[in-house]
Amino acid sequence: MKQKDKKQHIKFKGRLRNISLPDLDVLDDQREASAYKTARISSKLKHSQKNDSELQVGRVMEVMSNYQCRVALADQTVMASISGRLKQFLYQSSGLLAVGDQVELDLAPAPDFRIENLIPRRNSLIRYGSGTFQRDIVIAANIDILVITTSWLMPRFKPGLVDRYLILAAKHNIAPLIVVNKIDLCRDFEELEESLAYYRQIGCKIILTSTISGEGIDELRDMLKDRDSVFSGHSGAGKSSLINCLEPGIELLTAEVSDFNEKGKHTTTQAVLLPWSFGGHLLDTPGIKTISLHQDDVKIIPKLFPGFDAYYPLCKFRDCSHIEEVGCAVLEALEKGEIDPERYESYRWILQSP
Ligand SMILES: Nc1nc2c(ncn2[C@@H]2O[C@H](COP(=O)(O)OP(=O)(O)OP(=O)(O)O)[C@@H](O)[C@H]2O)c(=O)[nH]1
Ligand SMILES: [Mg+2]
Ligand SMILES: [Zn+2]
Question: Is 274 helix (H, G, I), strand (E, B) or coil?
Answer without folding.
Answer: strand
